[in-house]
Amino acid sequence: MTNPFDLTGKVAIVTGANTGIGQAIAVALAAAGADVACVGRTPAEDTVAQIRALGRKAEIVSADLSTIEPVQRVVDETVAKLGGLDILINNAGIIRRADAVDFTEADWDAVIDTNLKSVFFLCQAAGRHMITNGGGKIVNIASMLTFQGGIRVPSYTASKSGIGGLTKLLANEWASKGINVNAIAPGYIATNNTAALQADEVRNKSIMDRIPAGAWGDPSDLGGAAVFLSSAAAKYVQGHILAVDGGWLAR
After folding, report:
1. Could you tell me which residues come within 8 angstroms of residue 56 by beta carbon, excluding any fewer than 6 positions away?
2. Is 62 helix (H, G, I), strand (E, B) or coil?
3. Helices (H), 175-213
């Protein structure tokens, strides 16, 4: 029988692939058979080495996604270097922390531009290619704050709430065109973005006390979800936000 999770012959873009969740997803896609363009400001040399060690192709595509300037080039360079584009993982993101009464316009714009504006326009560029070439898979990285408000991260919460709505909008428009658009909402994952929370004894304890699994997640915990949503196994999954959260939302 054909393995519905097999990604052999597929080409994926993973943004923010240098470390953390992006790196883990890129390596998981490669383990399932995909070739991967690793996109980001910092060259993802270690990620590329891990992918090539698995026998798959990998290329670095340098791009600063704080603006939409490089978006079309990311798609074009991926197609030129790897021969196509079948999967887009929108993982790149930033966070700024401050009380809402003190939050600056600069921090608001920086987060919205990277986490939401660039995501939409990269979806658009990839979507145009995928529609022309018979379909594809787009997986956006949402958050627990797609569902909840959080504290001290107003622009991040707004951006991730926007990702939830954008995922559903694109699914509505593109499902009939052979493109599956879904999202993964990571729970509390131990990465650079959450280092401040892990270091805060009070906040860390309150977080740990609420996670039924009793531990922070590891970036590798997102790999299986990404492979599923990028594969034929998810062909009838559209506009879904898959929580990978150790049970956080269930409590």
Report:
1. 30, 33, 34, 35, 36
2. strand
3. 195-199, 201-210
The neighbour count for residue 34, using CB atoms within 10 Å, is 28
Question: What is the full DSSP assignment across 89-138?
Answer: EE---------GGG--HHHHHHHHIIIIIHHHHHHHHHHHHHHHTT-EEE
Distances, alpha carbon 140 to alpha carbons 122, 185, 210, 241, in Å: 11, 9, 25, 9
Strands 241-244 and 136-141: unpaired
Q: Domains in the chain, ordered, with CATH?
A: 11-244 (3.40.50.720)
Residue 1 has pLDDT above 90, yes or no: no
Q: Which two tokens stand for residue 47?
A: 């990620």
Q: Which two tokens stand for residue 179?
A: 């493109």
Q: State the DSSP code for 43.
A: -
Q: Which residue among 156, 216, 228, 248 is the active-site one?
A: 156
pTM: 0.96
Residue 64: pLDDT above 70? Answer: yes
156 annotated active-site? yes
Beta-carbon-side half-sphere exposure of residue 115 (alpha carbons within 13 Å):
27
The predicted-structure confidence for 200-225, as pLDDT tens digits, reads as follows 999 899 999 999 999 999 999 999 99
Residues 6+ apart with CB under 8 A from 19: 191, 192
Which amino acid does the sequence have at 36?
V
